[in-house]
Hints:
Number of domains: 1
Number of helices: 5
Radius of gyration: 18 Å
Amino acid sequence: MLSVLGGAPLLLALPADRYITVHQFLVTRFDPFMPVNLAIAFASDIIIAVTASTDGVRSLAATAAALYLAVMCVSLTRNVPINKWIAAVDPDAVPADWEEIDPRQRWSDWNRVRSGLAVAALLLNVLTVGVVA
Length: 133
């Protein structure tokens, strides 16, 4: 969610060469961290959905797991390909057609989608804890 509130607006405002440099820097920090956290949250919700003693808890956990799976799908099919492409771009040789191929808005839009899905999953997990407690 931090990237929706601060990171994406900053990246959208940067000139192309600075955007490429900053994006390359950020991706090397988030890419190892985010997939591991998503996988742990997804697996935890699957375990809860399978082992919970009440239908309500099972349902909440299964729905949260489905949302985390959707986050992973959006990441792998939309954001990661853009990240990989930007990682290969030389910031000192910005493509001449940058204005036409600039991926920032697409990346930001998909980031908003996956962030919304992740927040919804988190809220379901909070509700799950509330039901169990």
